Prior knowledge:
By secondary structure, the protein is mostly helical. 77% of the residues lie in helices and 5% in strands.
Amino acid sequence: MLCIGHYEELRARKEAEQKKDESAALEKIMERERKLQLVMEQIAEKEKELLELKGENVSLKGKVQNLEKDKSVLESRVVELCGQRKEADVSKENHGYDMLLVGFERAKRQAEFFFLEVKFDKLDPIKVVHNGALVDDDEVDVEGWG
């Protein structure tokens, strides 16, 4: 009997150790599953963030395209306005010349009114008298008259 008791005691110890080992293994498996579940949740969260970022990327690309179109429109408008400014500058210069001609014609008519016997047909608004002759004003130093 003593042998049977000792055998049963050894067997009970062995079963208790097996149950302890199985319990530890089960605990390890459960811990791994919790970690795996946590990692799976993190992956799902990252995938969700990735989808959101992809959506933002598409939205930003659309905005970039719209801004590039706006930039192109503005650049063409700048070119157009530069052309208009150049035309205005030329028009301003021509207007000054036109006003000079109008003033010259007025003065010529007034002189003809006062001096009926004199003809002023040979007068030229872009010529100057130099050394007894009418010459273009760019041929002489008009400011210094020399």
